[in-house]
Write a structure and sequence with these properties.
The complex is a heterodimer of chains A (214) and B (351). Helix content of chain A is 58%, strand content 10%. With 214 residues, chain A is α/β, with parallel strands linked by helices. In chain A, helix 1 packs antiparallel against helix 2, helix 4 packs parallel to helix 5 and helix 5 runs parallel beside helix 9. The two termini of chain A are 33 Å apart. Chain A has two domains: 81 residues, Methionine synthase domain (Methyltransferase, Methionine Synthase (B12-binding Domains), Chain A, domain 1); 121 residues, Rossmann fold (3-Layer(aba) Sandwich). A five-stranded parallel sheet of chain A has the order 2-1-3-4-5, sandwiched between helices. In chain B, 46% of the residues lie in helices and 11% in strands. Chain B is globular and about 65 Å long. The N and C termini of chain B lie far apart (42 Å). In chain B, the strands form three sheets. Chain B has a six-stranded parallel sheet with strand order 3-4-5-6-7-10. In chain B, strands 1-2 form a two-stranded antiparallel ribbon. The chains are: A alpha/beta (214), B alpha/beta (351). At the A-B interface, helix 4 and helix 5 of A face helix 7 and helix 8 of B.
């Protein structure tokens, strides 16, 4: 098989959630001389990214996406074993939650799932999370990304509080803050000093991956 | 000489100025996005020209010819003046204001905690308030709330939280939790329907359906079916949460049709099948795109929906949906332009 065919097989194994095909792609990758990390990122990783885009279009659904995440994990484990590194799966850490006073956590759950499927370690604090709890978790985990969700105009202010408390804790320059939720906009992000407003889960993944590549 | 620029807005409400070429490019891109996602027909060149003309029309507020006027309703209308505007008046008075001051054709009486789980616990009191408002008004008044399946999850409800289970890979448990929540939701909606029917409600609205995913939409369809069967004289209005049904479960079906991923032109057929009388179509506003991009996309989706619908389609034209920017005080320039586009291009039945 050519290198392109193997990369395509890895891509398809994630999209079609096919464990046998994933194992075959890993074996063929060795024969074709594809560096394991390249196979992981440009084959399997590209597949999970494509699935995220399909989810955003309503063409793939969350349970299917989570099954494919397992294929991604399988591939990452195999690559880890080949290159002798234990740092392949977790590209970065992200603390995420729905802000205090807000119980709407469905969108946040989708973001957490999609980000996690892209190899980011996610610390999901759940719903009704205070600004202090976000800061505490960043301190504990050393996460580089903080994502907060608010569905109500009355709870968006907690996102501003998170910015302020990160500053007070001396952590603001160490993390990238991402905000989202139905009433949240880029204008709000600019106003409170958040690093990024994300329209949806795919947008969040794009931003996080772009930051890691920068 | 500088090219002429037209006043318009972004999807977050901020003001921008665009050239004719830029507006045309966004109108075409917005339509293409809808065609691609919904797999629906494009608008005609005549429709696109009309959108351009409406977007660039002089004046802050635009309107339609009197003969083209459509009915308007106000979802959660009884809540907006007291809760959102902070004016302390009762819900029956808000209904009267909608009828006699705002010229609204119908309005719902709903609890500020706008979901059927909450409403069920106070259903008799809610029905009492509806009765009071019905006695003082002549416009159709209906009870409205959301199925909002998310409220049935722990710690606020009885079932496990699928939004937490799914990222953990507990797929089977997440699916079971959603299926269980559907049953709770249908039961609660029926309990409220019983009380509102008893006081003579003109209709009952299941609003923002699908907010928690495909199970949420299934709950609305099942409840609609039961309400129309049990109380045939009380029509059901189904309004949506977003442009496509989120696949949080992914395998749920109604009438042999998988619910996840359905766009408005397919949603309306199931809503009809369930027995609803009015369909509230929704298309999301993208905050990062311009009004011309958004409204062209909206018209493409809504026209495709109206074309196949056998029941009236009343688009949800409010904050963050159907071309209206995501901002607290929605600007009249964009609202009236969105309304005019929807009425004149999509032949919408109501707003």
């Amino acid at each position: 098989m050519t290198k392109e065919e193997v990369l395509k097989m890895a891509f398809d194994s994630v999209v079609e959630c096919d464990e046998d095909m994933a194992n075959e792609a890993l074996a063929q990758g060795d024969e074709a001389g594809i560096p394991p990390l390249k196979l992981l990122t440009e084959g399997f990783g590209a597949g999970i990214k494509h699935l995220g885009d399909l989810f955003g279009r309503g063409e793939v659904f969350l349970p299917e996406l989570m099954f494919s995440t397992e294929i991604m994990k399988l591939a990452a484990n195999a690559v880890e074993a080949k290159i002798g590194s234990s740092n392949v799966q977790s590209k970065a850490k992200m603390v995420i939650g729905t802000v205090e006073g807000d119980v709407h956590d469905i969108g946040k759950g989708i973001v957490a799932a999609l980000v996690k499927s892209n190899g980011i370690e996610v610390f999901d604090l759940g719903r009704e999370v205070s600004a202090d709890a976000f800061i505490q978790k960043v301190k504990e985990t050393g996460a580089g990304f903080v994502g907060s969700s608010a569905l109500l105009t009355t709870t968006m202010t907690v996102q501003k509080e998170i910015e302020k408390k990160l500053e007070e804790a001396g952590l603001r320059d160490k993390v990238k803050t991402i905000i989202g939720g139905a009433p949240v906009t880029k204008r709000w992000a600019d106003r409170i000093g958040a690093d990024c407003y994300c329209e949806d889960a795919s947008d969040t993944v794009d931003y996080v991956l772009a930051q890691l590549e920068a | 000489m500088n090219e002429k620029k037209y006043f318009t807005r972004m999807g977050d409400g901020s003001i921008i100025y665009m050239t004719a070429n830029e507006i045309w490019a966004d109108i075409r891109d917005g339509m293409a996005d809808a065609v691609d996602r919904g797999k629906i027909p494009p608008l005609s060149e005549e429709d696109l020209q009309k959108i351009f003309d409406i977007v660039t029309m002089p004046g802050g507020v635009v309107g339609v010819n009197p003969n083209d006027a459509v009915v308007t309703t106000s979802d959660s209308g009884s809540d907006k003046i007291p809760t959102k505007c902070g004016i302390p008046i009762s819900r029956d008075v808000t209904a009267m204001i909608h009828e006699r001051v705002l010229g609204c054709d119908s309005v719902d009486i709903g609890n500020p905690d706008y979901n059927y789980k909450t409403a069920k616990g106070i259903a008799k009191r809610e029905a009492g308030i509806l009765k009071l408002a019905l006695d003082k008004t002549t416009i159709p008044l209906y009870y409205g709330a959301m199925p909002n399946l998310g409220f049935y999850t722990k710690p606020d409800g009885p079932v496990d939280n699928w939004a937490e289970l799914l990222p953990l890979g507990k797929i089977k448990e997440a699916l079971a939790a959603q299926e269980e929540a559907v049953e709770h939701s249908v039961r609660d909606i029926m309990a409220v329907a019983k009380q509102t029917y008893a006081v003579g409600a003109d209709a009952i609205e299941l609003d923002t359906c699908g907010a928690a995913g495909d199970a949420d939409f299934l709950a609305a369809l099942k409840a609609c079916e039961q309400v129309t069967k049990t109380y045939p004289q009380m029509p059901v209005i189904i309004g949506m949460a977003g442009e496509f049904v989120l696949g949080m479960h992914g395998k749920l079906e109604y009438d042999g049709q998988r619910l996840a991923g359905l766009y408005p032109h397919k949603q309306v057929k199931l809503v009809e099948k369930a027995g609803a009388s009015i369909f509230g179509a929704v298309v999301n506003t993208n905050c990062s795109e311009s009004f011309p991009w958004n409204i062209s996309r909206v018209c493409t989706f809504i026209k495709a929906t109206v074309d196949v619908a056998n029941i009236p389609v009343h688009a949800d034209v409010g904050m963050g949906v159907c071309g209206i920017p995501m901002c607290e005080n929605v600007p009249a320039d964009v609202v009236t332009r969105a309304d005019k586009c929807l009425i004149e291009i999509c032949r919408l039945d109501g707003l």
